[in-house]
């Protein structure tokens, strides 16, 4: 069976880390006898420059016809302030694919605590999963934008909250059995709806899962103070965006953090959580691990190749244990040499 991957390198370091992920995918395809077919499409700023649209219809159709979509990153100063934004293409793609649940794992392996900016005792045993709602909230509400007044609407329906909460509770059952739902229910109406909907689902179907509510400002603190206390962290779109960048640094660098965005079918969107990193683009020093681990998540969640995903994750862990790495984690590797070190450990 040939698996079809829509491949969107995007902007800045996007093409650099995507190329690294593709090399690793090719290596694992070889050892695990997988047939992967990549169709590459223009996306983001690159697509604005060439086609006048961050999500050209050919790209959208190609993604909808694929078994999985892999994305590097989009955006950059070149397109900031323009009428068309690369980021809008990303939001439209997430919506078109119906990927409402964004999984962003953070863990610190035993022996790798020194990469964390936290004290060793706080970095020990960190292993949690942020489940971020991805197709609702303030990202998709009505906006008005004037010189003196602007407005961004935040809207959630009970159904939007329940379906992503279900993903979080189900994930917890396969992990440590705990969910912390994050909101700002002391101020926001959407957060009170969020809290009620998650409570109701927990009561009705998931009473075996240990469950708590945490206000988002307190969660920003607890992620630093006691990150090992958490298992699954469920939250809305904007809070999840912010908390996941914070979380990524606990393991050493945002360059290490992968993500999977899933909906009701098998087809998902897989991208590192970092952006186009314009400050380091073109220097060959971007950390490829976030992209490589996103490729592993793609194999596991969309391409029915869990063993190949394990092989990639083990190879990444092995290379880190050997002290390999790019400068963001204190290493001396380039993107290419770090990628090769990982490829060499694929079994
Ligand atoms: P960023 O994530 O691109 O960079 C933040 C910092 O992290 C920078 O110092 C950067 O050098 C570093 N960094 C990021 N990825 C790295 C990697 N792989 N290896 C080593 N260091 C890495 O965030 P930003 O600078 O706020 O945003 C830049 C652009 O990217 C903006 O246009 C933004 O809209 C866009 N963006 C896109 C995505 C996406 O495509 N999913 C995500 C976030 C930001
Ligand atoms: C991310 C990014 C995007 C988001 C931007 C580029 C639209 O920051 O994937 O985390 O906010 O979702
Ligand atoms: Mn983000």
From TrEMBL:
Xref: Gene3D superfamilies: Isopropylmalate Dehydrogenase (3.40.718.10)
Q: In which pathway does it act?
A: Amino-acid biosynthesis; L-leucine biosynthesis; L-leucine from 3-methyl-2-oxobutanoate: step 3/4
Q: Where does NAD(+) bind?
A: 275-287
Q: Which family does it belong to?
A: Belongs to the isocitrate and isopropylmalate dehydrogenases family. LeuB type 1 subfamily.
Keyword Transcription (UniProt): no
Q: What is this protein called?
A: 3-isopropylmalate dehydrogenase
Record bears the keyword ATP-binding: no
């Amino acid at each position: 069976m040939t698996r079809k991957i829509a491949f969107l390198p995007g902007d800045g370091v996007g093409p650099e880390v995507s190329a690294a992920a593709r090399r690793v995918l090719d290596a694992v395809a070889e050892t695990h006898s997988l047939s992967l077919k990549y169709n590459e499409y223009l996306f983001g700023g690159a697509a604005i420059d060439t086609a006048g649209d961050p999500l050209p219809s050919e790209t959208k159709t190609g993604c909808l016809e694929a078994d999985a979509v892999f994305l590097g990153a989009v955006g950059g100063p070149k397109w900031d302030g323009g009428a068309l934004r690369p980021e809008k293409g990303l939001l439209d793609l997430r919506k078109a694919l119906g990927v409402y649940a964004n999984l962003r794992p953070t863990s610190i392996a035993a022996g790798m605590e020194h990469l964390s900016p936290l004290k060793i005792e706080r970095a020990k045993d960190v292993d949690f999963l942020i489940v971020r709602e991805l197709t609702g909230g303030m990202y998709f509400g009505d906006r008005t934008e004037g010189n003196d007044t602007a407005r961004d609407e935040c809207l959630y329906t009970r159904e939007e909250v329940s379906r992503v909460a279900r993903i979080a509770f189900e994930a917890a059952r396969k992990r440590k059995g705990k969910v912390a739902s994050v909101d700002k229910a002391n101020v926001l109406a959407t957060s009170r709806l969020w809290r009620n909907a998650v409570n109701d689902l927990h009561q009705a179907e998931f009473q075996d899962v240990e469950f708590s509510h945490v206000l988002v400002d307190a969660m920003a603190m607890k992620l630093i103070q006691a990150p090992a206390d958490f298992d699954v962290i469920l939250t809305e779109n904007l809070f999840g965006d912010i908390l996941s960048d914070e979380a990524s640094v606990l393991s050493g660098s945002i360059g290490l953090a992968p993500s999977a965005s899933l909906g009701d079918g098998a087809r998902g969107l897989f991208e590192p959580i970092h952006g186009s990193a314009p400050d380091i683009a073109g220097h060959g020093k971007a950390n490829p691990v976030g992209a490589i681990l996103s490729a592993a998540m793609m194999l596991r969640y969309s391409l029915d190749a869990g063993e190949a995903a394990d092989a990639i994750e083990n190879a990444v862990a092995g290379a880190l244990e050997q002290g390999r790495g790019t400068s963001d984690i204190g290493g001396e590797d380039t993107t290419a040499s770090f990628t090769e070190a990982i490829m060499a450990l694929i079994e």
